[in-house]
Structure formats: structure tokens, C-alpha cells
Amino acid sequence: MLSKKMETALNKQIALEGYASFLYLAMASWCDNEGFEGCANFMHRQSEEEKEHMLKIFHYISEVDGFALTPAIKKPPHTFKSIREMFQKVYAHEQKVTKSIHELVALSLSEKDHSTYNFLQWYVEEQREEENLMRTILDKIKLIGDGPQSLYYIDKEIEKINIAEEKAAAAEEGK
Questions:
Q1: Cα 95 to Cα 140: distance, rounded to the nearest angstrom
Q2: pLDDT by residue (tens digit) across 27-49?
Q3: Rounded-to-integer distance, Cα 53 and Cα 81, Å
């Protein structure tokens, strides 16, 4: 059984994951509008992944006799100055999520809530991977540049990353 403090903290994480899903969906729409098909596909996949993260916590709370709350989610920004700025915002948001997960881990340890601690380990690893992925994308943008002629190549690189991530996810599901 969850403590009320842990239940509240996990419900806050549900809201953070839900916001990430909506943020990435808004980014996908912006990419579609700007003609970045590869980036749009990537952001659509990221949005779905964040929704899954939210639901995983939602179900966990119920599993351990807590009460999961459906969050109100504020409207995310939907326009961006550039692809670089958009991915910088993604990276910053992933860092915020990582910090929140680490705070949940610390709370689970302080409360000797071993079940929640164990549950959160998946998120610790996932966030390490997410931050690394976003840093990799930002590094590619820095190498390619984000001038008008470089945007085509950025979009193609993001599409390659998206395809690789989809294949990795499919392989993981097939295990």
C-alpha cells in the first residue's frame, strides 16, 4: 500500500508525463506544418511513448491500492523559432522529468517503499536513454547546422533515428 505522500507524488508524475505527451504532440503538429516529416514522425512516437509512461504509473498506483488521478493538463506551446529551439525544449523537459523521477526514487527510499523503488528503476533507465537521445539529436543539429539548406538533412537524420528507435522498441516487445 502506498503512503498518501507517495500517492500524491506519483500523481504529480502522471501529470508531468501527460504534459510531455501533449507537448510532443504540439511539436509534431508544428513540424508537420513546417514540412519536417521526419521530425513530425519522431515527435508523434515520442508523444505516444510519454502517454505509455503516464499510463504505466496510473496502473501502478491502482495496483498498490492507491487512487490514480486523471490530471488537468495545461496547453503546451505550439510554435517554435527553429528545429534547434524545439529540441532544446525537449531536452530541457526530459531533464525536468529526470529530476522528478530522482525525487520519487529518493522518496521511495526514505519511506522504505521497496515496491515503488523497484517500479521506478525502469524510469531511471528510461530517462537516461531519453536524455542521451536528445543530446545526440542536438549534437547532430550542431554538426549539420540549422540554416535553410541544412534543415532537409536534419529532418532526414531525425527520421533515421526514429526508424532505429521504432525497430529497437519492436525488438524489445518481441522478447
A1: 19
A2: 999 999 999 999 999 999 999 99
A3: 28
